[in-house]
Structures are given as C-alpha cells and as structure tokens.
Amino acid sequence: MTIEALILDVDGTLADTEEAHRQAFNQAFERLYLGWHWTPQAYRRLLATTGGKERIAAWIDELDPPPAQRKALMARVPEIHAEKTAVYTAIARDGGIPLRPGVERLLDEARAAGLRLAIASTTTAANVDALLQAAWGARGLSLFDVIACGDQVRAKKPAPDIYQLALDTLGVAPERAIAVEDSPNGLKSAVAAGLWTLVTPTFWTEGSDFGAAGLVLPHLGDPDEPVPGEPGGVLQGAAWLGIEELLQCAAPRRRPDAIQALYH
C-alpha cells in the first residue's frame, strides 16, 4: 500500500527542544517568584506527563502543599504556562534550538517524493510556530499541510486523539502514513492511531520502552553526521535514513517484524 504522508512530533523529534523548555520553565518560575527550579533529572521525570500545563500541575501535586495553597497554585497554572511560553518562543525565534540531524534533509526528500507532511504535537501552536519559523524562515509554516497542536484535542498523548486529528484533516488512512516520534507517550499515541512509527530518542527519552516501534534510530543522520554503526546494522543504503529506505521499512511486508536498532 502506498504511503502518502509523514506525520511528525515536534519537541524532541524535529529538534531537541526539551532543554530550552526546561530553561523557559525555570525563568518563568523565577519571574513569578515561585521559588521552584527543575533540574534536568526532575524534568526528565516530569516528561512522563504530557503537556506543559499538565506538567506544572503534576509538579504541584508532587510538592503536596496544604489544600488552600494547592488551590491557589492550580489557579495560577495558566499564568505560569503563558509566561513560560513567552520565554520559550523568544529562545526559539533567536535561533537557539537547532534541528536534529537529518530532519531538514528527510523532509525535503519526502516532499520531493510527493509525500504530504503534517505535525501532531501536544505543545502549543505558538511554540510550533516559533520553532518552524526559526528553522525554515518564511516557508516553515507552508512546509506542512496540517499542523495539529495539543489544545485542539481533548486528550493528549498517549491518547491517539492528536494523530487521529492529523489523519482526519489530511484525509489519509493510518496505513498510508508514517509517524515520527521520540518519546514513549508519543509512540503509544501514534500506534493507537494505527500508524507505523519511527522513533529517534533523545537524552530525555532514551532507555524507554520502544518495543512497539517499527524502527528505532538515535537520529536520522546526515552525510556529515552519520548514524553510528550504519550502514549494515539496520540501514542498508547509507549511514543516514533516506526517504526511500524509510518507505521500504514501513512497507506492510516488514511491519510484523517491528525491526529495531537500539542505541545507547
């Protein structure tokens, strides 16, 4: 069956944004005199909760304040998140978040092959816009046929809602699309929507269970930044994942094998 679309997550997939998000949260906490600070280890743990506002709420639950204080803090979650978003978008627009290896190349190859591109992200539209414009300039938004963001669905990842929204808007059946993710929640979301999924973990998600993925690579690779151990490990054509090989990996005859390459 012909693949028609590539649907990509944003945070961690297009770019390793999580450190910028962590810094933005901490700056927001400081500006709002909350006295909170998320270390890399704490933030990695909090990433198990999908969505920025939900992550703040999870942190408040961890702090376990008295009932009245908890209610007051929960009421401030939208304010805290809005401040964090303002900081993050400034970081992104200043070019502080480079794309991961191979992302720009693979998307250009996908476009040239006639595939449609979509985003399925639980982050806000403002965060997506800032990253796309910083990475691709004026063509950033027009590069994607559909941009589905977290606030457009009732349930965030690992629920399949965001991928179902992207598929419905594209008008493409799940067996005719490939998802690209970096996290276990993202993988669960894509698989629940019926998508064959490529996973490229980061520091924030490596070591997670990606057993349901069709293919796992440390990154997509480029001629000047090859994938370790390739070709010959999982990739056969080159030391980077090209669109032709990705389409071959996602072909129905190979789906049951759930071919993976786990890198540490």
From TrEMBL:
InterPro entries reported for this sequence: CbbY-like (IPR044999), HAD-like_sf (IPR036412), HAD-SF_hydro_IA (IPR006439), HAD_sf (IPR023214), PGP-like_dom2 (IPR023198)
Any GO molecular function: hydrolase activity
Highest taxon above the source species: Bacteria
Entry keyword annotation includes Hydrolase: yes
Keywords: Hydrolase
Pfam families from the UniProt entry: Hydrolase
PANTHER family from the UniProt entry: CBBY-LIKE PROTEIN (PTHR42896:SF2), XYLULOSE-1,5-BISPHOSPHATE (XUBP) PHOSPHATASE (PTHR42896)
Protein name: HAD-IA family hydrolase
